[in-house]
Amino acid sequence: AEAAESVTSNIEQELASGKRRTMARTQATGEAARLSSLPTSTTTLIVVPAPLLDHWSSQIRLHVDWDALDISRRPGDAGRVLYDINARRPMFTVEEMRRKLIVVTTFHRLTIEARRQRLSK
């Protein structure tokens, strides 16, 4: 009787373990599919505390070839650096940001945008 219970227990453990592995594979596959559906980009996203925004702007100007770099503050601008800090306006679209070399924003700005996204659902 004890041997039968032990075998049954081992079988149940194996089934539970197999179920966990299957669930993990399913979740990993779903995550891989989600990630592969995201647009690719070579844009560098820099998230800074608001008080350091001017410092980052000056450091970019100092360390990047200025002739090859323009500054952009609106979606239609042709600049290569985008400062997305105005939380009162909607955030730039993914396509607008993908066209830039560098996007600089603040943690506060991203927090507000995340809140907007949650409220719109």
Structure description:
55% of the residues lie in helices and 13% in strands. The mean pLDDT is 77. Helix 3 links the parallel strand 3 and strand 4. The protein has four helices and four strands, in the order αβαββαβα. The chain is of the alpha/beta class and 121 residues long. A four-stranded parallel beta sheet has the order 1-4-3-2. It folds into two domains: 38 residues; 77 residues, no CATH class.
Structure described in brief:
The protein is α/β, with parallel strands linked by helices.
> Any idea how many domains?
2
Low-confidence stretches: none
Helix content, binned percent: 40-55%
What is Rg? 24 Å
Total number of helical segments? Answer: 4
Report strand %.
5-15%
Inertia-based shape: elongated
- Compute the separation of the termini in Å: 56 Å
Order of helices and strands: HEHEEHEH
Order of strands, main sheet, comes to: 1-4-3-2
- Major β-sheet annotation: 4 strands, parallel
Instruction: Supply the helix-strand structural class.
Output: alpha/beta
